[in-house]
Write a structure and sequence with these properties.
8 strands; Rossmann fold; globular; about 260 residues; 10 helices; alpha/beta; three-stranded antiparallel β-sheet
């Protein structure tokens, strides 16, 4: 859904929300998708909306310092996110850009684009529409503080830099079988993550928001992390009896 004329929910209406934040490589995406699938809720990757705007800017040659042009581009672009956690499709003006928004060029520019107030204003409204009122698992920055400050569950996922680098390297090897498994490659990935942390810090501090549960995942399996988040959902009273009975344990894996 991307219709800007759709009614935008007020922040206090966005309560049935699980908000996950954390640094790059902390497992936000995979954990969010797994939790959304277990609950049968929408999955919303808010970072993908900023990446879509960034891709549009790069394609049109709009400078990352041109706040006015970026703001207009954010308002005019039609950005759609598929709510299915098994198929997190991203469309920009009708084109499937799910892979294109993950390019190195977009990754290098997205922090600067997402820092533009006009862009943030447009994307926050869109994200609230995408989340809806019926239940959403949302990953990204500002969710628990700006987009949905009344979210019933707020989680900050974290892990040691070397663990995050190892997980990101594993993801890249799965995406590209030609990627090296050498120590140099791991160091390169870790340097890239730390550089991303530094860029992100200039926009938002990498720390838990008020009321968020800080979940250190370095020594946890993927299944354990998902189970911990689901336990928080139960504690918040967000599960109706039907979902509670149907809820199953996610297969074990790495966070």
């Amino acid at each position: 859904m991307s219709d800007r004329t759709a009614e935008v929910p007020a922040p206090d209406e966005l309560v049935r929300v699980v908000a996950l934040d954390g640094p790059a490589g902390s497992g936000k995406s995979s954990v969010s998708r797994a939790v959304a699938k277990e609950l049968g809720w929408r999955f919303v990757d808010t970072g993908a909306t900023y990446r879509a705007v960034t891709l549009a800017a790069l394609r049109r040659g709009v400078a990352t310092a041109d706040a006015e042009q970026l703001g207009q581009l954010a308002e005019q672009s039609r950005i759609e996110l598929g709510p299915d956690p098994d198929r997190p499709v991203v469309r920009l003006d009708g084109e499937d850009v799910t892979l294109a928004i993950r390019s190195p060029e977009v990754t290098a520019a997205v922090s600067a684009v997402s820092a533009v107030p006009e862009v943030r204003q447009a994307m926050i409204a869109l994200q609230r529409v995408l989340m809806g009122r019926d239940g959403a698992v949302v990953e990204g920055r500002d969710i628990a503080t700006v987009v949905a400050p009344h979210a019933a569950v707020k989680v900050y996922l974290d892990a040691r830099p070397e663990v995050r680098a190892s997980r990101r390297a594993a993801e890249q090897r799965l995406d590209d079988r030609a990627v090296s498994d050498s120590a140099d490659f791991h160091q390169e990935v870790q340097r890239a993550l730390l550089a991303r942390d530094s860029r992100d810090e200039q926009t938002n501090r990498l720390e838990p928001s008020d009321g968020a549960v800080h979940l250190e995942t370095s020594d946890l399996t993927f299944a354990e992390v998902v189970a911990d988040v689901l336990a928080l959902v139960r504690q918040a009273g967000l599960l109706d009896p039907t979902i509670e009975r149907q809820l199953v344990t996610t297969p074990e894996g790495d966070a």
